[in-house]
Amino acid sequence: MIKCKTCNLPETYETIEFNKKGGCNICHSNINLKKKINWNKRFKELIKIINLYKDKYEYDCIVPFSGGKDSTFQLYTIIKKLNLKPLVVRFNHGFLRPKTIENTNRTLKKLGADIIDFTPNWNIVKLLMSESFKRKTDFCWHCHTGIYSYPIRMAIKLNVPLIIWGEPLAEMSAYYKYDEIEEEDEEKFNKVRNLGISSSDMKGMLTASGYKFDARDLLPYEFPDYSEYKKNKIKSINLGNYIKWDYNKNVNLIKKELGWQSDELEGVPDIANPFSSKIECYMQGTRDYIKYLKRGYSRISQNMASELRNKNISIEKARKLIQSEGKVPPSLKIFLKFTNLKEKEFNNIVKESTVYPHKFKPSTVKAKKTSDFDQWYKE
């Protein structure tokens, strides 16, 4: 399998393309284009945007929030550095881990912020997980869509038109180049977030599968009507387009200033998750395992790619860590129970979506349980 000579990501990675020298487009964007950006000028542009909204509404902005490293850093920056009064909006996807909840409570108390914490109908969530997994071998449709549509729906409902998100997609993919300004609008929602399945599509799929549901249950996952978006003059930006993003520095800052704590990540040695990626969701291990079965890489490869681009690790050491990818996560049994699938059915579905030239091969090696495993909700 062809891999980037700099970041070691394989040809099966989403959006990757290689140049004649063996480098990839993600590295080019992350290293070359990122260096050329005038961050002082970008920050001034951010201030200009903020000044259009500051002190003109009940809240200066909405901050979508998970409690992970990126949203915690963005909330800290918005309150402490930009002196804004935000409304924090969290879409609780149903899999928040105990330490994430502790981190969130501590962060909100230390920073001082109002929060709307929305948890959707769990029975509907399970239907959406099952349907999106069978259709796209990605059970996170409800998460992808809910996290990005619900805060925008709240912005319209509460008349808080400025929404400030966190990292740019260019940090880990090539959906956008680093010198592009991303906006979390309907175009990006349909291009990246919803897996190519609209809310209307999902209604039809659930109906075809014989599921009983109320169409109103899907509203949290539906991007607002374009006319409402424009009428309310929604401005939905990424902080990482205006402030240079550095995972390690950001994590060190929130640990120091907020007492934010890292956690184990299922199937990933601590040394292979230096900037505490994706620790907030207890289904992440299963999601990474599916990615490994389909494409031959998972979270360790992605983390190491970032570390290699930033010259924080040697390629030899990174490759050694990557060899531990692909272990069966304990959370898989929980997922199978939620979706009423047998492991054989699960494997057959994933096998059909294997990306060439990777060869599908389920693992027989099991990852160890994390210390909070017994606290995760199970059925």
Description:
The protein has 379 residues and is mainly α. It has two domains: 25-35 and 262-370, no CATH class; 37-241, Rossmann fold (3-Layer(aba) Sandwich). Helices cover 45% and strands 6% of the residues. It has a three-stranded parallel beta sheet. β1 (61-64), α3 and β2 (86-91) form a beta-alpha-beta unit. The longest helix has 18 residues, at 141-158. The model has no long low-confidence stretch (mean pLDDT 97).
Task: Give the key terms.
about 375 residues; mainly alpha; Rossmann fold; three-stranded parallel sheet; two-stranded parallel sheet; 15 helices; 5 strands; about 45% helix
Average pLDDT, all residues: 97
Q: What is the CATH H-level superfamily of the largest domain? A: HUPs
Structural class: mainly alpha
Q: Main β-sheet, in a few words? A: 3 strands, parallel
Q: What's the helical proportion of residues?
A: 40-55%
Task: Provide the fold topology.
Layout: H1 25-36, H2 39-51, E1 61-64, H3 69-81, E2 86-91, H4 98-111, E3 114-118, H5 122-136, H6 141-158, E4 162-165, H7 186-193, H8 199-208, H9 226-231, E5 235-238, H10 247-258, H11 284-295, H12 299-309, H13 315-322, H14 331-339, H15 343-351
Parallel strand pairs: 1-2, 2-3, 4-5
Helix pairs in contact: 3-10, 12-13
Tell me briefly what this model is.
With 379 residues, the chain is mainly alpha-helical. It has helices at 25-36, 39-51, 69-81, 98-111, 122-136, 141-158, 186-193, 199-208, 226-231, 247-258, 284-295, 299-309, 315-322, 331-339, 343-351; strands at residues 61-64, 86-91, 114-118, 162-165, 235-238.
